[in-house]
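Reviewer comment 2.1 asked that we show a complete input and output for one of the modelled complexes. We chose the guanosine-5'-diphosphate case, as it is the one discussed in the main text.
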Amino acid sequence: MKKNKTFNDSNPLRFLTSAPDRSSLPFDYGKEVAFTGRSNVGKSSVINILNKKKIALTSKIPGRTKFINLFEIQDGKRLVDLPGYGYSKTLENKKSKFYWEKIIKEYICYRNSLKGLVLLIDIRQLLKDFDYQIIKISIYKKIPLVILINKIDKLSYNSSKYQINKFYNIISTSSIQIIPFSSLKKIGLNRLKKIIEYWLS
Ligand SMILES: Nc1nc2c(ncn2[C@@H]2O[C@H](COP(=O)(O)OP(=O)(O)O)[C@@H](O)[C@H]2O)c(=O)[nH]1
Ligand SMILES: [Mg+2]
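Response of the prediction step:
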C-alpha cells in the first residue's frame, strides 16, 4: 500500500507559533492551508485528527482560541488554525467580533503562502454572514476553498442528508468542494487529506 506522504505517524505536526495578528506571523514563505469557521465549529479537532495526536487546542468553551496558531508539517508546509468568529451577545463582544473578523480577512487577503482554505460549517446551522463573506473573498482572491459540513454525526442519516442537500443548493459554485464531515467518526477525512496534500504539493 502506498504510504500517505504528507500526513503519517513518522511525520507529526509541530507547533510553530501563535500570532495575535498578521504582522506577527512568521516569514511568508512556502505553503499554508488555513482552517476557518465560527467558534466551536470544530477547526482544532480537524487539525488534531489530521495529526492522529492531539496538538491543536480544542475547547468546549466557544471563542477560546483567539490566536492564529501555526503548525508545521515539513519545512515550508504549514497548517493554520484561525481564530473562530461569531458569538457576539454583549457590546464588548460585538467590538471584538469585528476585530477578529478583520484579522481573519487580512490573513486571507494578504498571506501569500495561503494555498487553500478549509471553511467549517456546523451541519445544524445555516450559513452566517461572515461565512458568506469568506466564500466571497476566496472566490475574488482565487484561493481554493473546501467547505466541511461538520459534525454530521450529530444528526440522523435522513436529517443529515436533508441538511447537506440544502448546503449544496445554496453553494452552487462548482469550484467549491463540499465535504460532509465528522472528526468524531472520521467521515470525510481521507478526501480532505488528499485535497490538503494537493494544495501543499
Ligand atoms: N459530535 C462531534 N463533536 C465535535 C466534532 N468536531 C468537534 N466537536 C466538538 O466540538 C467542540 C468544539 O471543537 P473545537 O475543535 O475546539 O472547535 P473550534 O473552536 O472550531 O476549534 C468540542 O467539544 C469538540 O469535541 C464532530 O465532528 N462531531
Ligand atoms: Mg479551536
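The mean pLDDT is 88. We note this here for comparison with the apo prediction described in Section 3.2.
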